What does this fold into?
Amino acid sequence: MRLANVGGRVTVVVGDGYVDVERASSGRFSRDPQAVFGDWPGFRLWADSVVEGSAVQETSLGVLAADLDAPVPAPRQVFAIALNYADHVREAAYSVPESPGVFTKFPSCLAGPNAAVVLPTGTVDWEAELVVVIGERCEKVSEAAAWSRVAGLMVGQDLSERRLQMAGPAPQFSLGKSFPGFGPTGPVLVTPDEFDHPNDLEIGCRLEAGEILQKSRTSNLIFSVPELIARLSAVCPLLPGDLIFTGTPAGVGGTRVPPKFLTAGDVLVSWVEGIGTLRNPMVAVDNPFSRAGVQG
Ligand code: ZN
It folds into this structure.
């Protein structure tokens, strides 16, 4: 099953159409995309009947890319993993971690799959990532049971302001990666049963103008999705609707020689096999003088 957030309404994607959940369920489920995680197993049962076509007559919506918002817009917790691909560990000149390095992206940074991102500085970097959405509460969950607690997978970008991230004696990962718009996700949430090999998906990003920036496979993760869920849930209960940004492969800009960063006018295209594509235009900080037509 594929779920989308269309203009703030949760929808099930069926073929080329979008079934509006609140209307199709006669109000049993609300329009709020975050609220489906209040009863994810019940929602899955209902939604599977929609996909089979028995519960819906006519609910297709005409949807534009601009209508799509973050499929999971207001998680209670967002976990993010540093240094989780060996080739990225090497380019960043760290040693391979023995346990996952964990930080957060504060939820106010989450954005839709096609959202424009305002660049606060000239040192904003890209990080294509697989994002896991938790479906059921996880507390000390084993690796073997972990996939059964996953609601679905999304594409994500862990956009990173490198100067702030690395400032000070203890790096500011969480703050440097949480400017508004720094967490685009989507374009849809895809449930694990839709994948033949959910632990081995191509992942990457490129500039729309053409240059491939990152390309890898999620089978290269140092800590796999089940291992991350087991290790995180050994400490923090994972709650329905929580997100895990699982880490990025090699190819970020900040460790290149010379460094390369996003600039206004770039369109960053990010993908994960079997899920879809994010398309995020980068724009300059809004300057009140230029907005008023004042030069200089
Ligand atoms: Zn990252």
